[in-house]
Every structure is written in C-alpha cells, then in structure tokens.
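Review form for a predicted model. The reviewer records the input and the model, then writes brief findings.
Reviewer: anonymous (R2)
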Amino acid sequence: MGLGAARHPLLGATVMMADSDRLVFTGRLSIGSQPWLADHTVGGVAVFPGTGFVELAVRAGDEVGCGRIEELTVETPLILPEAGGMAVQVVVEAADGTGCRSVVVYARDENAVDTPWTRHATGLLAASGSGGSALTQWPPAGAEPVDLDGFHDRLADGGLVYGPAFQGLKAAWRRGEEVFAEADLPENLESGAFGLHPAVFEAALRALALSGAPEDDAALLPSSWRGVQLHASGAGALRVHATRLHDGDVALAVADATGEPVATVESLELRPVLAPAAARTDSLYRLVWTPVEANGSAPADAAVEVVRAGGSDVASTVSEVLEALQSAVSHVVVVTRGAVSVAGEDVSDLAGAAVWGLVRSAQSEDPGRF
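Model under review:
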C-alpha cells in the first residue's frame, strides 16, 4: 500500500507520493489515547501545545535529512475534543534548490470526513547546523533563585491551566534578563520515543515568564520558532538557559540533567493569550489587519525590487522567491494574493503562504530590507 511506519507516538504512518519527492505523515491526536494532552488547557479548552508542533516538524525533518527547523509558525490553535480525536497530517514538500523543504501541519475532526482540513502550522526545514551549548555549570554563577510558590496559579489567572503533565518546572534562577530553569517529566510519562517530549519542553518554557520584563505579566504561548535544532533525543529532565533578544524574542539553549546539549532555539516569539471568557475554538489567537493609506511617494532615488509570489507548486515557488531574495541588491517587496486571511476568508494560495514563512526568516536575518 506504500505506507511506512512513522515510529513516533504522535504519528502512525508515512506515505511517499508516487509523482514527487513529497512526504506525508498521518497521525491521530486524542485525549483518550494520549491523556497527558488534557493537561494543557487554554481558556478552558484542551489545546495541542506549541512544543508539540516542534516535535512533529522535527520528526518529519529527520525522515528527509533536514535536522533544522528554519522557521515554524503556529497559525491556528489545534483544539482537542473531549471525546474522539483529531486526524493529523504533516506534509513535507519536495526539496528546493538549496535542499530546504516546506512543512505544513493540518488537522480535522476524525469523524468529519467532509470537513476541510485546517492548516495549523507552517514552516521550513533545512540541513542540520552546528552543535548546541552545554550547561554544565549549574546552577549558573551569579544567578539568583526565583520563588515558584503560586506560579501555576498566576498562569491560571491568565488563562493557562496546566495539569500534572505540564507542571514539571522545578526550579528557576534569574541573572539580569537571563533566566535559567529546570524541568522534569512526570514519572508516569515516557520520553524515550520522543525527540523532545512536548510536556517537559512546554513546562521549561513557562520559566520565560520569570524574566522580570513588563510583557511577562501576561500569559504567553509560543507563536513562531526560528533556528530550532535537536542535538539529542529522549531527555526527560531539562536545563534551560533563556536570553531575551533585542526584538523581544527569546533564544534558548536546552540541555539534559547532566548539562549535555539537547536543543537550540535561535529565536522564539511568544504571543499573549486571550482572556478565558473569550476562548472559543476559533479565537485563542487574534490577528487584526489595519488599513493604511498610502500618503506621498517614495524618494526618486529609492531602489525597490518587487517579487510577485504564488502558484500551485509550493516547492518551486518558495525556491524562486528564495533565489530572488538572495540575488537582490536593493530592498525587496514580496507581493502575494490569497496567502493569508485578512477578513476571515479562506487561504487560497498555499504556495504564497509558505513564502510568508520564508520572508519572515529573511527579515530576521536582514531587518528592514524585505
């Protein structure tokens, strides 16, 4: 039948498309089959954690020789039903000219076969980079312990209610705006079959609310990841070093209980959670587009290249735009149509949507140019 085993607790099978180098993973997410998922609730509903999307992308990348996540953006929360489950597909497109592959995570109710698939996350996979940073000096010199009493109660006040599986944050220290933390996976959960178990990774990320920055007063969820690489798999206990970047995002070095590197995250963007009373299956995140009037004109000597992106072939479209960005000698404006939802309409151009992820990565490397 052309099916291969996915060899992962969250995924069941893989299918290589006959007419292309395109790979599809299939799986099922269910509170009944994976009870620990019920311990991650936002605004009163169980939501698949952002670290879970990273885990899915890492597994997909391993299968095609792409050990690095250039970018992964959570576009739509994946709500888990109280009964039944969600069918999941992780689609990895063919490699472009640089060897990169776009990845998309879709889901829908397993019993609603006539319902369109919802795209929940998009990203770009690439070849592995350099190794990670060890965290052998622990606790770190000059860091002050942080009192965690009442910490999870404060998260709950902001709409994040964590059950035992996600309450693994055990200790934290602060040194200026740097945060250091320890997190463990509960004994009743196994980490060996995962690259990095989403529950212990998510528990460690909660320490980001302890940096003392004003924005940390709000409950935050992972929104966009850049430069993610797994260095070792199966860790059930973590050490994390978080550093706030100039743009407000956070860089992470993740190690195991002995200090050996487990993962690197070059940049993580966090987004506030809506108030619990507003939580619905379509409203945990809200993106608002504001019309802007074009006043005046560009200077006569302004050099701007315009790249129009879109089409039916995701891989070739992304490859063409990447080539245009790399060869450009001036500022670049990338134009898409139907690649994002502006007023609630469906996204009609998947290739253009993938280009948005590519351009966000380019913007992080060369701010103000794209």
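Findings: Residues 140 and 180 are 8 Å apart (CA to CA).
Further findings: DSSP finds five helices and 19 strands in the chain.
Recommendation: see findings above.
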